[in-house]
Design goal:
five-stranded mixed β-barrel, SH3 type barrels, Tudor, alpha+beta, zinc ion binding, Tudor domain-containing protein 1, zinc-finger
């Protein structure tokens, strides 16, 4: 029997131990970096709660779920390291040299987070290693004051109304040396974050169709251009105030602080502008791409030129409005040489004071983010005509009046007028039902296709099949059903010959308006304590629909809304929810045309701005009544004359209390005489301005009419 020299054996054991220690240190460094990342991510969960109230619940639950997973990982790590006993008492003695007969030591199950990352090869050492598992004392959870995720401002559920009870820790938690070192670390990411106040610019006011506004062209990019419709002196004063403020309060920002900016202030060498931070150019030059919201330019600045935008400069919305020329269609967007010439031609009018007329009929290349306008230059020429004359674009004919329209055809007009129609530009669908109806059945995937019916109520898979065993309808219909609100009562139309006090809420044509009857408003009833009643007045309805408790419970629609469906729609001008009826929708840009049934206003909104209308909001009848001015006709069939008469009618009646004399009533509208507070007739005032012609009329009494039959 031969023995290994003691010095040689010690050297082998030492080298083996040093190799394992180096591997262990690498794992420690890797684990420390992972724990730092988890710590940084957990500290950012609170910032994710600064969101829309409708998204608060989802974000809160998601953050709590991730935080629980992080807590489980750290707890397992602490428990595993607490079970390891100090190995300094192990005895290492020389052993006989039986290397050829050694077998690999069985691999122990993973005890800690480090071994889970990468398992090493088992050692062939026969040194005895005694590991005694000590009993871990139970720990009681203690609530710390600095662990509050959300601070509630409501008095019904606040930190004052819910007392916190602290419990003593009965045993001291065993912490490993790595955790002890982590407590001493300061994460540089937290030190680099900039404590900014939440700033958000308000939305731009909406411009009315067929109206003319004064403006100044500020920037041109291709076929799009940006116009300021407000006074340019206001924008100039804002820039002076920003320059004066940031000159005194300039602060150097590093790269990490710039990355978390949303709105910012940028310096171009002369003054400061308000900007929207887009992205950071990764080329080593520390250059940021910023969109200047008051001029429409997109430029690159060094990060030293950027500053956080403070709240005092967030009162006004962006002044620059993105526009495109209405009534024209560029010849070829793919010809870059032609686009450059078009842009060069339009750049000659930068800084020109002009007038813009908002067009209702957008061109095929327009979108909801751009306004189709007619730019009227100081010499009364339109920029649209100049572009067409220089052969940069083709003219698109504006819609003609009904009297001049072509005879009716039995196919879509685009198929008649456009001989170069390419059907390959149409959207493609795999499901024919979705292509025709816009509806895609989702429960068909849950129904077993192998089930053919029968008393066994299963397929050939038996109990292993997890799908529904339902016999499909022979026509192919499935079980998808979504209940929607489709009906809401109308207010009874007043009798002919009666007088009423009305409030005009919408002017939709030169002779038609919507009003609310004020004189028959019932007083709001205060219910008993604990009794919940549906709103009985329009004021209580609007107040209830826009309460914080109601806004966070609005549910998005499960299916694309159908024409005639009642929904809750957001009105962008005041950011409130109102009852609305769907009129039409366009799937390419996900826009829905709705009419606010209590006011008569018709507006296009996005699909994410409509919600499911609860049944309790349909108890109150629709408050808007459509009326036509009695004895009023238009002498011209020109749409421009109609638009002018509509503007004058809006000046005389919009949002004003008037006296209405009911002349006659139809199925859904009434003919009325409207008088202002001074007793002057609205129709006579329109006729005095040569907007309309007056004809004779008389009151039509229909009180003796028993019923009316609608003939097909």
């Amino acid at each position: 029997m031969s023995y290994v020299d003691l010095a040689t054996l010690t050297m082998h054991r030492r080298n083996e131990l040093e190799g394992r220690i180096n591997m262990f240190l690498e794992k420690c460094d890797h684990a420390i970096n992972d724990i730092k990342k988890m710590k940084t991510k957990a500290q950012g969960f609170v910032l994710q709660l600064n969101c829309d109230p409708a998204e608060l619940k989802e974000r809160f639950l998601k953050s709590m779920k991730l935080l629980d997973e992080f807590t489980y990982l750290i707890t397992d790590f602490n428990l595993a390291t607490g079970q390891i006993e100090d190995l300094g008492s192990s005895e290492y003695t020389p052993v006989p040299d039986t290397t050829p007969k050694l077998l690999p030591t069985p691999q122990l199950p993973t005890l800690n987070l480090l071994d889970a990352l990468s398992e090493p090869t088992p050692s062939t050492s026969q040194a005895s290693m005694k590991v005694t598992h000590t009993k871990k004392p139970k720990r009681l959870k203690s609530i710390k004051d600095d662990q509050t995720l959300i601070t509630f401002s409501s008095s019904s559920c606040s930190s004052e109304s819910v007392p916190l009870v602290k419990t003593e820790v009965v045993s001291k938690e065993v912490q490993c040396e790595i955790v002890y070192e982590l407590e001493k670390l300061d994460i540089e990411d937290n030190q680099s974050q900039v404590s900014q106040e939440s700033c958000k610019l308000p939305a731009q006011s909406m411009l009315e169709v067929d109206n003319t506004y004064s403006g100044t062209i500020m920037h041109v990019d291709g076929s799009s251009f940006w116009i300021i419709t407000e006074d340019t002196d206001i924008v100039y004063r804002l820039m002076l105030e920003m320059t004066e403020y940031y000159t005194k309060n300039y602060r150097k920002m590093n790269l990490k602080e710039v990355k978390i900016l949303a709105y910012c202030a940028v310096y171009d060498g002369d003054c400061y502008y308000r900007g929207l931070f887009l992205n950071l150019i990764e080329d080593g030059t520390n250059t940021a791409e910023v969109y200047i919201v008051d001029t429409g330019e997109t430029r690159c600045f060094h990060i030293d030129s950027l500053q956080p935008l403070v709240l005092q400069f967030c009162d006004s919305p962006p002044y620059a409005r993105c526009c495109h020329l209405a009534g024209v269609d560029p010849i070829n967007y793919n010809d870059m040489h032609l686009v450059e010439k078009l842009e060069e031609c339009m750049r000659n009018y930068i800084g020109t004071l002009c007038k813009i007329e908002i067009d209702d009929n957008h061109s095929v290349h327009s979108s909801s983010e751009s306004l189709g306008v007619y730019v009227i230059l100081p010499d009364n020429q339109t920029l649209n005509q100049i572009i067409v004359q220089q052969e940069f674009a083709n003219a698109i004919n504006r819609p003609v009046s009904p009297a001049k329209q072509a005879p009716a055809v039995h196919c879509p007009p685009e198929l008649v007028n456009d001989s170069s129609l390419d059907i390959t530009h149409c959207p493609e669908y795999e499901d024919p039902v979705e292509a025709v109806t816009g509806y895609h059945n989702r429960d068909e995937a849950d129904i077993c296709k192998h089930y053919k019916g029968g008393p066994s109520a299963t397929c050939f898979k038996g109990a292993k099949c997890k799908k529904k065993h339902i016999v499909k309808h022979p026509d192919g219909w499935t079980l998808d059903r979504v209940e929607v609100v489709g009906k809401c009562k109308s207010i009874p139309l007043p009798e002919p010959g009666t007088w009423h006090k009305v409030l005009v809420t919408c002017v939709c044509h030169y002779d038609r308006v919507y009003f609310q009857i004020i004189d028959n408003k019932e007083p709001e009833q205060i219910p008993d304590f604990g009794v919940v009643l549906p709103p009985a007045t329009l004021e209580s309805l609007v107040r209830d629909m826009n309460s914080p408790a109601a806004r966070i419970t609005y549910k998005p629609l499960k299916l694309t809304p159908a024409p005639g469906e009642m929904v809750a729609a957001l009105y962008p001008l005041d950011d409130n929810w109102y009852r609305a009826r769907v009129l039409s929708l366009t799937r390419p840009d996900q826009s829905v045309e709705v009419m606010y049934v209590d006011y008569g206003t018709v507006l296009w909104v996005k699909e994410d701005q409509i919600r499911h209308l609860e049944a309790r909001y349909t108890f109150l009848p629709m408050q808007a009544v459509r009326c036509v001015l009695a004895g009023v006709t238009c002498p011209s069939h020109d749409s421009q004359h109609w638009a002018a008469a509509k503007r004058v009618l809006g000046e005389l009646t919009q949002d004003k209390l008037l006296d209405a004399h009911i002349i006659s009533r139809d199925y859904d509208e009434v003919a009325v005489e409207l008088f202002n507070s001074d007793g002057y007739s609205i129709a006579e005032q329109l006729a005095a301005r040569d907007m309309v012609d007056l004809v004779e009329y008389s009151v039509v009494d229909d009180t003796k009419t028993q019923c009316k039959v609608v003939a097909p």
